[in-house]
């Protein structure tokens, strides 16, 4: 059974969207790749920056001396 002209048209339209020069899907995938590249670059920059003592924050809770021991 041979495919009808409507089926062939649908396949051609999908192929143009996927593999077209500046199709919607190809531009979306290009933008996604740029975003992933920028994310990885940001992670590398964050890892190489050393933390100084001035940047550290003491989160240890203070001992409550108002309570009395029984």
How does this structure look, described?
- There is one protein chain.
- This protein has 70 residues and is mostly helical.
- The protein has a domain at 19-45.
- The chain contains 2 helices and no strands.
Helical segment count: 2
Q: Strand portion, in percent?
A: under 5%
Over all CA atoms, what is the radius of gyration?
Answer: 29 Å
Q: What low-confidence regions span 5 or more consecutive residues with pLDDT below 50?
A: none
**N- to C-terminal separation?**
92 Å
In percent, how helical is the residue content?
55-70%
What is the β-strand count?
Answer: 0
Structural class: mainly alpha
What gross morphology would you assign? elongated
The averaged pLDDT comes out at: 79
The biggest sheet, with number of strands, parallel, antiparallel or mixed sense and barrel status, is: none
Task: Give structural attributes.
70 residues; single chain; elongated; mainly alpha; 2 helices; 57% helix
Could you outline the blueprint of secondary structure elements for this entry?
Layout: H1 5-19, H2 24-48
Short description:
This protein has 70 residues and is mainly alpha-helical.
């Amino acid at each position: 059974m041979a495919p009808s002209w409507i089926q062939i048209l649908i396949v051609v339209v999908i192929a143009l969207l996927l593999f077209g020069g500046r199709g919607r899907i190809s531009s979306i995938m290009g933008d996604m790749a740029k975003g992933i590249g920028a994310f990885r670059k940001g992670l590398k920059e964050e890892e190489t920056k050393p933390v100084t003592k001035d940047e550290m924050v003491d989160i240890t809770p203070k001992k409550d001396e108002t309570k009395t021991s029984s």
